[in-house]
Amino acid sequence: MHSVFDCYIVDLPLIHNQKGNITVLENNKSVPFEIKRIYYLYDVPYAAERGGHAHYELQQFVVAACGSFTFILDDGVNKREVFLNSPRKALHIKPGIWREMKDFSGGSICLVLASSLYSEKDYIRDYQEFLNYRMDDLHK
């Protein structure tokens, strides 16, 4: 079982020239898994919060493509806040971590690369169920 300290910020590769910058994300290279799904959040209303769930198996690689926002990561024992505000950095979120998102700046775009296709069975949407899952794993 992963902890919030297993989730980490990755410096993404930068190719720079006078016409602008490019960052390339590749399966099993700059992204530490095979990407199966890509989605992005945008036009998040002021003071809105997103997330509020964990995944049994899914890994995520999250980039602030534009603007900024904060992730609150929770492993049932430890909590950690991670502020993203650069398209040059990504947050790798491991399975079994509860995540919430807040403090979206105006015009922010949260780009998410996911390790699997959408499956409702992979979600833990109730916080008490999440805590029970984490405690059950500790006692194994």
If you had to describe this structure to a student in words, what would you say it looks like?
The protein is mostly beta strands. The protein is 9% helix and 42% strand. The protein has 1 helix and 12 strands, in the order ββββββββββββα. A 5-stranded antiparallel beta sheet has the order 1-9-6-11-4, with no helix packed on it. The chain has a 5-stranded antiparallel beta sheet with strand order 8-7-10-5-12. The protein has a two-stranded antiparallel sheet with strand order 2-3. A hairpin with a 2-residue loop joins strand 2 and strand 3 (20-22). The longest helix is centred in the last third of the chain and has 12 residues, at 127-138. The chain is globular, with a radius of gyration of 15 Å. The termini are close together. The mean pLDDT is 94.
Question: What characteristics describe this protein?
Answer:
five-stranded antiparallel beta sheet, 1 helix, 140 residues, 42% strand
Q: How big a fraction of the residues is strand?
A: 35-45%
**Element string (H = helix, E = strand):** EEEEEEEEEEEEH
Structural classification: mainly beta
Largest beta-sheet details = 5 strands, antiparallel
Estimate the helix proportion, in percent. Answer: under 10%
Give the neighbour order of strands across the main sheet: 1-9-6-11-4
N-to-C terminal Cα separation, in Å?
11 Å
Average pLDDT, rounded to a whole number, is: 94
| Contiguous uncertain segments of 5+ residues | none
Inertia-based shape: globular
Radius of gyration: 15 Å
Number of helices: 1
Number of strands: 12
